[in-house]
Amino acid sequence: MKILVLNAGSSSMKYSLFNGEDSHQIAHGLVEHIGETPERDVAFALRQVESELQQQGLIEHLGDCDAVGHRVVHGGEDFQQPVIVTESVMDTIDRLSELAPLHNPANLAPMRLLAEKHPGLVQTAVFDTAFHQSMPAYVYHYAIPKHLYDDHLIRRYGFHGTSHQYIAKRAATLLGKPLNQLNIISMHLGNGASVCAIQYGKSMDTSMGFTPLEGLVMGTRCGDLDPSIPLYMMRELGYTAEQVDHLLNKESGLLGLAGQNDMRELMQMAYAGDENAGLALKIFIYRLIKVAGSYMAIMDDLDAIVFTGGIGEHADKIRYRVVNDFSKAFGFEIDPVANVKAQGESCITRPTSRIPAWVIPTDEEKEIAQQTLALLSDT
Q1: Could you write out the DSSP letters of every residue in 195-224?
Q2: Which residue of 60, 119, 188, 228 is most buried, as measured by CB atoms within 10 A?
């Protein structure tokens, strides 16, 4: 069984082709610069994907796939599980674009084109927000007038759910525990970053909120911020709403603090004595520990903390500082050698550590393929 997974953004389209019940990846690639010219539209991107898979002798056309699984950023409260794509599903994803105007339209575009060109092709939608729909009401509500939730669905949704869900499954296997007994803190650290408290295999809290802007300090996003600051910027400094939105999402975070959002470059700057870079790293690590530590306070038990994402998987110095900077009351004992040598799925703490810390590479595309397979087997 061949499952094509598409991760379509506003300017690029990632694709992966999986085969078999174990979701073995047999091809992957990236089409970039979508939208830079009228000719390089979504239809062009799909033709490129089709052409590259044809050249490898894997398909004759996209309709040869048994199914196409799509990453969709926002499912709102409408979608708590992956679904088979229908006209009604596409209309709902379109309606939810008001909650994710930069993402949902891009996720939806290839669905509509494939439905038109290959009407018999099974398509599925897997939502970044779905894993977090298990959060209780006291976690996802903001302390603002209730009608804003009732009428406009303003609440905490959380993101990176597909990644956190994949990490939960892999951690359960590695730790030898049934998923419904697993308690971990998953830390997805990349240019976008979030932490998820996973209790009994389900998301009970996560650091991102109504949008991916809430939570940790990220590459270009500010993370948690006093809500009065944007109001002050508009009222006293003359910023427009659009300028504030752009500044907080695209010009803040590590980039705003130190002029650099690539963690590798930032670390080199810090070790070379750049004070702004050093401060940015301290803020990044402090905020991460603060959030993860607060989750430890509310969880019934904790089997492990897990690093994933580009920074979590590859920045051993960041991992070392995070684990080492936790309060000694938590009993973490990092293994410096194991941390530096970590490749793939690795435990980076000593056997005497009260709580183990793991590195587990995420694979959102494989998770989408596996959820698609599971959905097909149930229908």
Answers
A1: EEEEETTEEEEES--SSTTSSS--SS---S
A2: 188
